[in-house]
Amino acid sequence: MVLRYTFTARLWLYPGEAGWHFLTVPDEVSAEIREDTVTFRRGFGSVKVTAGIAGHRWSTSLFPDSKSGSYLLPVKKAIRTSAGIGAGDQITVQLEVPGSG
User: Fold this and answer.
1) How many separate domains does the chain show?
2) Which of 68, 3, 94, 7 shows the shortest CA–CA distance to 40?
3) How many CA atoms are closer than 13 Å to the CA of 19, on its beta-carbon side?
4) What are the distances in angstroms from CA 76 to CA 11, 57, 64, 86, 99?
5) Residue 72: which domain range?
6) Is the pTM of this model over 0.85?
7) What Å distances lie between residue 66 and 26, 59, 70, CA to CA?
8) Do residues 97 and 49 make contact, with C-beta atoms less than 8 angstroms apart?
9) How many CB atoms lie within 10 A of CB 60?
10) How far apart are CA 74 and CA 22, in angstroms?
11) For residues 26-41, b (16+ Cβ closer than 10 Å) or e, as one string?
């Protein structure tokens, strides 16, 4: 079963040299994903997903954030450039997550 979520979050830049950009998955969505993906988690508790922003789709993983308890969605440069988005923008994202439903 594939679980589908849509949410809006602010794109932020990780304060390091690598320039990683992330969206923080809302708490309630993170809780559902955590509950429904127990058998699908990979190393470090990551979860494979298909993400979509402004019609651009890609495969990636969500990573648990021990500080907030939510998942983080990395947004690669090619997607940011194609979608015309940057740090500080409010972004609507669609996620497809394998789950036990």
Assistant:
1) 1
2) 3
3) 4
4) 11, 11, 17, 11, 24
5) 2-98
6) yes
7) 14, 23, 8
8) yes
9) 17
10) 4
11) eeebbebbbebbeeeb
- Quickly count helices (H) and strands (E) in the chain: 2, 6
Tell me the CA distances in angstroms from 85 to 22, 61, 66, 73, one per residue in order: 12, 20, 26, 15
User: Tokens representing 77?
Assistant: 């440069």
Structure tokens at 46: 């990551």
pLDDT of residue 99: 73
To which residue do tokens 């996620």 refer?
95
Amino acid identity of residue 71, one-letter, is: Y
Q: What is the mean pLDDT of the chain?
A: 92
Proportion of the chain above pLDDT 70, given as a percent: 92
Looking up residue 9, the CATH number of its domain turns out to be: 2.40.30.100
Beta strands 21-24 and 71-74, pairing class? antiparallel
CA 8-9-14 angle, 5° bins: 155
